[in-house]
Amino acid sequence: MSNQMVKTIRNWILGLMLLASPALHAQDVPKDWHLRAPEEGFAGMSVEKAYKELLADKKGEPVIVAIIDSGVEVDHEDLKDVMWVNEDEVPGNGIDDDGNGYVDDIHGWNFIGGKDGDVAADQLEGTRLLVYYKKKFANVSDPSKLKKKERKEYELMQKLEKEIMEKRQELEQNVMIYGGVLDALKRFVEAIGKDPADITQEDVDNFETDDQDFVRIKAILGNVFAQGATVAELLDQLEEAYKYFESQYKYHYNPEFDPRSIVGDNYFDSSERYYGNNHYEGPDADHGTHVAGIVGANRHNDLGILGVADNVRIMTIRAVPDGDERDKDVANAIRYAVDNGASVINMSFGKGYSWDKAAVDEAVKYAQKHDVLLVHAAGNNGQDNDNPDNGHYPTPVYEKKGLFGPKRAKAWIEVGASGPIADESLPASFSNYGKESVDVFAPGVDIYSTTINNGYVAHSGTSMASPNVAGVAALIRSYYPELTAEQVKEAILNSVDKVSFMVTRPGSEETVPMTELCRTGGIVNAYKALQYASKMKGKKKRKRKGA
């Protein structure tokens, strides 16, 4: 390990521990802060206040919320009783009883699996585009002779090739660095002979060694202890970082990797709809399970957590691997949700490029036509989504322009992430934003929810903010079923807690009004949204299957 590597690792650990250690919060933040009211001292959504003061004597209708994600643990103790059940399908008989084209789809469907298994990791869309364009332009000797559209594609290919090759070099180095540190730390722990959670600063100081790797590990651990963290926590964080970099190197940015054969479809046929399997969980359902719990974890079983929405039925549609989701799968996931009765669709995913945006646009239009509200996470790059160079797909803006310019989906909410404290730090530092492209912010920092193996954990991201809004939308659709998807959106956006103070623009140190970060300039408030909805005159809405 070089000294520069040690410096890099120490800086990374310092930053990581500042984010990861609960002891370092300015004040103690309750696990359910996102459900609390601002008057309780945290920038939550007033969900519990709404149940106590507005909904106590009311009865809502069941609402199906589709979770398009990595999969959901359908037998989780806090989710199993709120999962959507396709009552027209006979479980396990291998027959498409309801004739919808999907066999044994009891709780939903998996569009990234096939008869021989499931896709775990996949490339990023940029990597897939590079492979596609390299084949397309393999015999081009003079790009200046290409037509305008193809010349743009050729230029994009060159840009992607440069970016991806540089990224692979960076990732290869990071795999080596973090792999080396992880190995050295494991050997160090073994040499001390204690459980990692029990190792103290005194143990480290008293450990004498001439091994230079161990000397550097001792220096790193000095910083870790100073941050109030443990050796066990460091090991977990290093494992996570190593797997992150390794996965990116082996799969995301690897032009040679392509798992699509597992699915067995014709990927280039965007009209193909009936493929996949009913493996709802897939290889890693942590993300989707966490999202599902935020929306609708059982509020009546005295276990775990409380979801935002009561009377909810969670439909799980797996379309998001470890890597970038594919447009064809997203389009089919939206259509499946609509056809099987979903009133709200949560989409906690996004990517920098879109290969077949037209297919997704058509599915979005299909959802709009059938009165379904789509809720989408704005992304975690700390970037301005208004900037056309900063892609974050899918988007509500259709690729095909109308007579008077771009058209956009009306029943779509784009969500940024906010934190628990109402000060300059309110917008999460990682959250994407956009004065025009992001509608609203919602709690997305340290959100405690369900995870795999009947577990519970706190995650941060716009992936957590989006289901908070989807949950509020489900609440409104449950108690005010006469309102259309567009009216539900209106109720949510017109009732936000306006942020009157200056906040830090994510990704910078600049302070700006909240209206510079989103269209509403505020944070979602369930109590106020329900009040607003109660005063609206509902528009006729067709009967939803299963709702």
Written overview of the protein:
- By secondary structure, this protein is α/β, with parallel strands linked by helices.
- The chain folds into 2 domains: 3-9 and 127-252, no CATH class; 32-121 and 264-534, Peptidase S8/S53 domain (Rossmann fold, 3-Layer(aba) Sandwich).
- The chain is 36% helix and 11% strand.
- It contains 13 helices and 15 strands.
- The protein has a 7-stranded parallel β-sheet, with helices on both faces. Strands 3-4 form a two-stranded antiparallel sheet.
- The longest helix has 45 residues, at 148-192.
- Residues 16-26 have low confidence and may be disordered.
List keywords for this structure.
13 helices; globular; 36% helix; alpha/beta; Rossmann fold; seven-stranded parallel sheet; 547 residues; single chain
Quaternary state, please?
single chain
- At the fold tier of CATH, the topology name of the largest domain is Rossmann fold
- Number of helical runs? 13
- How many strand elements? 15
What's the main sheet like?
7 strands, parallel
Question: Which strand order spans the largest sheet, edge to edge or round the barrel?
Answer: 2-5-1-6-7-8-9
Question: What structural category do the secondary elements indicate?
Answer: alpha/beta
Named CATH architecture of the largest domain:
3-Layer(aba) Sandwich
Strand percent estimate = 5-15%
